[in-house]
Write a structure and sequence with these properties.
alpha/beta; flat; 5 strands
Length: 189
């Protein structure tokens, strides 16, 4: 009888995983993006920015060389702001949940210094439960969430950067098509 229960649980688990895989479910931040870049310069208004270090780590994991001069592209982190605000309270008017918000402002330029992404703000938020009986645990949870938020925003920044590069490549290939057909013929297509 017990082995039948185990088999039924296994079949149920396998069925559930099959449904999730079949519907296109994927864990957050597992989407791949291509960056056809050989070198990049990352600078920050704050020399000790945790976000800049996370961005550098992610860029290096994509086999892109980090250089200080002569880079294909440069990304400048203009600001990094973290804020926390209470979003709910308990019956005795103490904080039950906090919202963390991380906001990054950045800009990007090509090797000639021409802006490809004007100063842009990206942000993310997380809500976590605050346990005043375990202040150390709550503080650790907050730090873990902030680190996760930095990883999320670094990936978001690189996805945006990749999308801009793809758009530029498409525009260039479109202008080459116009040259092949001639301006008059291309407009009629």
């Amino acid at each position: 009888m017990q082995s039948a229960t185990v088999v039924i649980r296994f079949i149920a688990l396998f069925s559930m995983l099959s449904v999730l895989a079949g519907c296109g479910f994927a864990l957050r931040n597992t989407a791949e993006f291509d960056l056809a870049v050989e070198s990049m310069n990352i600078s920050s208004a704050n020399a000790y920015s945790d976000f800049s270090r996370e961005l550098e780590r992610l860029v290096e994991s994509r086999d892109i060389a980090l250089v200080s001069t002569g880079a294909d592209y440069s990304v400048r982190v203009l600001s990094e702001n973290t804020s926390r605000r209470p979003v709910s309270t308990t019956a005795d008017i103490s904080v039950a949940d906090y919202e963390l918000r991380l906001e990054i402002q950045f800009a990007a330029a090509d090797e000639k210094g021409k802006p490809i992404i004007r100063p842009t703000v990206i942000s993310t938020e997380r809500i976590y439960s605050f346990d005043r009986t375990s202040l150390v645990g709550s503080a650790e949870e907050e730090q873990v969430l902030i680190a996760e938020m930095r990883r999320d925003l670094a990936a978001q920044l690189l996805r945006r950067f990749s999308a801009v590069l793809r758009q530029d490549a498409q525009k260039q290939s479109g202008s080459e098509s116009a040259d092949i057909f001639g301006d008059d013929e291309y407009e009629g297509l």
